Amino acid sequence: MQKKRIEGILPALVTPFDADGEVYLEGLRRYVEHLVGKGVHGLFVCGSYGSGPLMTPEQRMQVAETVAETVNGRISIVLHIGAADTQTTLRLLKHAESLKVDAVAAVTPFYYRHLKGAIVNHYKRLIDASNLPVLVYNNPKYAHYVVTPEVLSELAEYGLAGVKDSSGDIALFYNFMGEVKKPGFIFLIGSQTHLVPAMIGGASGCVSGLSNAFPEFIIHIYELCRRGEYEEAAKLQKKANVLRKVTGEGIPVPFYHAVMRMLGVDIGVPKAPFEPVSQVEYQRIQQALVEHGMLDS
User: Fold this and answer.
1) Running DSSP on this structure, what letter comes out for residue 14?
2) Which residue among 137, 174, 222, 256 is the active-site one?
3) What is the pTM (predicted TM-score) of this model?
4) Any idea which residues are catalytic in this one (predicted)?
């Protein structure tokens, strides 16, 4: 049974690692406490920013256990369990059920270009096996499959609880919200770059990369939207989108390791093949964030 509502701003939690590629547990605990203290509404754990696909199942379970223990029910946790194969995803699902998490999400099985029937049956198996709410994680750029509104609606009728959409296509997100009629369905936009238009359309919340470093800034945009103050929210949305350019292209995991160091929060190093940013890049990021008023000079 769902313990907490999945809504608001959920950082796409970056996982700390040590130089050997093992999970930096002390850093993870401190980082989670830092974000809880900043007022985030929840955490999205072991996703793309969390290096989920780079970890072994055992490491993912270690992260899930540590985050759940540290949070201890104070905010919601959506645990990403998606993998390239159904059996590993089911294994991570069963482990999730033993923890204090509020929902699980699974990216569409990646690498191979699966047909619609395989995708639908994959999620039906998860729904059938789960005592937790199950969310589809739509990330076509990396998983090579676009979940359609029709597929999402079919799965919603079967028992799917929600979607995290990282397609970057706000029209698709609106089509999801228009097609799915299930009451209480969770609609999470997968980037703060679309937060304001998503909220105007009725989104539940946002899984945000930038809120790893600047949670209060992203929460402020969300709260403005909740109050209907869209003009002010739109101004800050533009700033958030400029800041996204500062982070770099793709999934900028090394950026967050660097920025958290600037903010005095030790989250170790990224997991190889990611590499820490160079000293030149570190200085470029620092200068850009100072210029945008996100860091003190």
Assistant:
1) P
2) 137
3) 0.96
4) 137, 164
Please report which helix (H) or strand (E) contains residue 105, including its range.
strand 103-107
pLDDT at site 1: 42
Length of the chain: 297
Q: Which residue stretches of 164-227 are H helix? A: 170-179, 195-201, 215-226
Helices and strands per DSSP (H, E), number in the chain: 12, 8
180 marked ligand binding residue: no
- Tokens standing for 148? 């359609």
The pairing of beta strand 42-45 with beta strand 205-208 = unpaired
Distance CA 81, CA 16 (A): 18
pLDDT, position 297: 77
CB 173 within 8 A of CB 187: yes
| Fold (CATH) for 8-249 | TIM Barrel (3.20.20)
Which residue is listed with tokens 């159904």?
86
Bridge partner list, 188 = 164, 205
Closest CA to 194 of 215, 148, 225: 225
Question: What local confidence, expressed as pLDDT, does residue 105 receive?
Answer: 98
Active site residue 137: yes
**Which residues of the chain fall below pLDDT 50?**
1-2
